[in-house]
Amino acid sequence: MATADHAALVAPLTSTGRGQKLLVAALLCVLAWGAYGYVTQLRDGLQVTGLSRPVYWGMYIINLIFFIGVSYGGTLASAVLRLVGAEWRRPITRAAEATTVCALIVGGPQPLIDLGRLDRAGTILLHPSFSSPMLWDIVAISTYLVVSVAYFWLALIPDAAWLRDARVGGRLRRGLYTVLAAGFTGTDAQRRRLHVALGIVAVAVIPIAVSAHTVLSWVPGLSLVPMWHSALFGPYFVLGAVFSGLATIIVALAIVRRAYGLHDYLRPEHFAKLGLMLLALSTVWSYFTFAEHLTAFYGKIPDELVIAHERVYGRFAKLFLAMALACGVCPLLLGFRRIRTVAGTVAVSLLVLAGMWVERFLILVPSEVSPRLPHEAARYAPTWVEWSELCASLAAFTLLFIGMTKLFPIISRWEVDEAASAHPKGCEKR
Amino acid sequence: MKPPDVPLTALTRREFLQATGAAAGAIGLAAFPGCKPEWFGDGERVPSGPESWYFATCTFCPSLCGTRVRVVNGNAVAVRGNPAHPKNAGALCPRGVAGLQHLYDLDRVMQPAVRRAKDAPLERVSWDEALDLVARKLEELTPALVIDGSRGLDADLARRFAGAVGGHYLSTVYTGARYAWDYERTRYAMFFGHEFLEDAPDLMDSLRAFAQLRGRAKLVMVGSRFGVSAQKADEFVAVRPASEGALARAIGGRMEIDDAATATGLPTATIERLKREFTASAPQVAIGWRLLPDAQEALLWLNQVAGTFGKSGGLSVALPPPFGQWEEQPQPAARPLPAAAAVLVGALRPAHPPAGFVVALSPTLDDAASSANVVLPTTTWLEQEAVHVPVAAGRQVVAYSHPAKELRRVADARPAGQVLIDIAQRMKDARRHFAWPSYHLALRERLVGVHDAQRGSIKEELFTPFMEKLAAAGVWTDERVTNLATYAAEPAPWRAPAGEGLTLLTHATTTLGEGEGANLPWMQELAGWQHHIGWDTWIEVHPKHGFASGDIVEVASARGNVRARVVATEAIHPEAVAMPRGGGRTAGRWAKGRGADVAALLEDPGPTRVTLRRA
Amino acid sequence: MPRWGMTIDLDRCSGCQACVVACKQENNVPFATAEDLDAGRGIYWMQVLARVEGEWPHVRMETMPMPCLHCDDPPCTKVCPVDATHKDSEGLVQQSSARCIGTRYCAQNCPYTVRFFNWKKPEFPGAFANYRSPEVAIRPKGVMEKCTLCAHRVKDAQDRAHREGRRALRDGEVTPACAEVCPGRAITFGDLDDPGARVSELARSPRAFRFLEELGTAPKVFHLRETRHGDG
Fold first, then answer.
1. What value of ipTM does the predicted structure carry?
2. Inter-chain touch A56–C117, beta carbons under 8 Å
3. Which of B135, B305, B328, B455 has its CA 20 to 30 A from that of B465?
4. In this complex, do B91 and C20 lie within 8 Å of one another by their Cβ atoms?
């Protein structure tokens, strides 16, 4: 049971352990290594990657889809759970929303890494061509980012006010809290307005999130490339995104729980509930994957059949099997109560995340290596530069998330308190 | 808003973009201190300038196509076909176009060089010093062997040089009978083991003939490899390797059809039909290339039986043009004498590297030149005044070309013929056979004969206007043909070739040729285009032998062994393997170590049998 | 306004590669090193594709010269986020290397895989720099490039015609580099909207077909199917 003064929530904001400092230093090293890789790429061109004709997109676009997917869990889960009034959501929303913001900040710029001419990136603003789904994508993802940040901020206002009043941190930080608190003093009128605003944004964020990933799926989906050109792609991407996003939340929560000793707030029941959600999403994911391949194999359109065959039986069979096990089979284990522990859900979530990265790879690459006209045997193997960029992106995400936990209480204090005052016996329904 | 149609012409746009890019660039610079603006270079446009065109004759192969070379700012920037040339009528093969990479070869010999001691590096010397040294050495070490890879006047002078020094003369290029195929009127053409679209004594004729004959004549390809020639023929007749001679004999009536069926693996009905078709479709022609001598013999016989020699639509032999005769042609030694010195004239890669003191006349530091004692830089075909005699059916052709004066010199090089004259004039005995002060005058003496004949496409009373017109047209032609006298010898009865193992078929490619294209990167990258292989030698193997595409195998014959990359394909007879020629050179920055020298495997007369082992 | 197009007669193509090399030379496309080929990064505005099918001795081989097909409804142009590629008023699909930012989306959306990316700075080592053509700008690294159907030659001819007071070009007045050298004379270029032009005649032939026509891209480069002696 959380104590009323929430000392555990404030502690990470004011003190940093040695382990954490070391972790941050290590992550900064990874980030620097990624920067070195990127400078190499700027100097020598994209020849330092494993890309070629016809594998024009690889690691960076996979990372784009992956991180945008990861960003999904937070805002969407938080918004949906808030709207349906799920009480158990209260301690998890802040961390969830933080993952969204961090993942978007890391994922959004991935195409810039992929760009042949970074120096001309500004052209996209000066001479935009709205017939290109890529431009829709830029609009959709930036809207999503803005709304997600707004949502995160709205839900943060009472806590920011609390931190302001508690005079946490130095001058700079207090200034930040003052700004973020936006003059919130906790009057009933303010609380009512905040709830209305949160309600509106929570409703708005759902279609925006859905559109963001749908539009992202249209970048490949509206092309002529076999197995990309599919109406299934929109919902498939959205579902996959929620799936991997949820797994991200589970992992993130487990980490902050352990690192900051938040066992009182994040209890095994939370993980069990999230685990069940993951299981449910996994079955839907399996259904989509099955439908996609069944259509290809049954329809026997030669261009598509080649690719489906490559994926399931051919060169990518091992990856496909690994993906199916990680995303389709392992989450089913969460049906067992004994597996649905904190450790169990985290393990499954990590598998799901790895599996979903592979899924993005399998969506993109097999279609590229099988062009329609006769072509030399195309292949794709990412180089050290591309792997470095993936590692650096993961490091950047982690760093951002750590930064969030150092700036804001990673558990929404006011929401937990609100529940505690509404249900004096405890904030959770058992 | 639409971007400019032609890239990089709209300067304002570029500046505009640069300005906008600066924002992003600034972020990059701030983020990465090591980042330099030139990493984001814009495209580059080569400055334009006054242009001129000149004629040149491509000597990469015996076709001797007429080319036009474009010069801008002193640089040759394009090689195109000469539309008025009877050989190629404006067309070119890939090697001809890539002549630019020969002219600007990074391994051009810039000035004479001498190797003072064995294994010492080549040392640059003046022309006088090099020529004096060579003349002295050749007088000491007589007789010298002359190995010649040049064509046209250079080849004539090389032969004369061999005679003048009393040595043996050996040509490394195809100098077979100068048959001209009157393909425009042929109705039936059979190609025996002849990859006529990749490898032909006269590639340009083949490439043009096939297109012109499409639908008008029937083209039949007989062979054991299904290459592009087999595909483009109207019919492919798959025979056992090295059995073309049997089919030719059967069609020519010198072999029982049943026996030929056994030898070739063809049904008797097919042989009967081919015989019927061939006999009934006059004018017809049977052409072979890279065959065993017995098959070549049978083909000559077949053509004679069919009466294709001298007939319209058949084969004829070109009459030599009315060249002015040089005085007193000294004859080279008939038999190879033990030689202590050798003169290599543009000899890319002699089959038997000569011993002793070696002088190489070469435009580039190729296999022969890189191991020579003295290297004398010669001009490429793009920089040399030249007279050539391309073979064309029903015509006599003399091609004359002279580089434009605007063309900037690439090296301190001289025409091979000029170098030979320069050496001879420094030698006591040889001097009298090379009385011309210059190569140009030797050349002029030949053309005087053409002028004096007062016939053909250019007739002028005086020589100077004749030369002017010839230079402007690039070619002199006349309608004259001489028929081949009846070929009498009947072929001997067919005997199955001896030996066990897989039969090695070799073919030149349109890109590498016999190796002429090996130091031209464009040719290397496209050499195995049909297999997506470049810069390497491959071996086509039937899948039943258990090798997979991409495997590296060691190919061994009685003469040697090489390595090659496997192409497992159904397009080859299971008893045969096929390899391209022209790889495995030992010098040249683009050629060295690229692929394998297939010639090292070949047995004379063949067939060459090989075994494969995974390497 | 002309609508430029091309026919490629597979009956006359011998796969000799002259067109490929002439194109590389004309358009300042650098040669591909062994490493480039190995990585699948050669640039060929014109290339000859090959495919072998069947079992010995019943083998079939296809050789297909494949420039950019200059679709009338090009899938590549509409996906470019900065309009760096577009179909010009004479029907040619052009690429601006000054505008291109290198997303490679156009290349993804080209079903014919005839768009090429500059993975590195084009190299003309040593004296090879001499033979670079002044007609076509050399592209920088990081941008797309493709066959223009020798648009610079079209423009030259149009300028010449303009100086001579002619409004339209004569049929056959412009020849792309690939067509110019072709030994089999397999390639014909001209105005598809001129019913008398040789290229229109050939494009109307029963042998004419267009690759992947079912995709609705409406290429303006037609191929003419192979025939065999006695096919009628």
1. 0.96
2. yes
3. B328
4. no
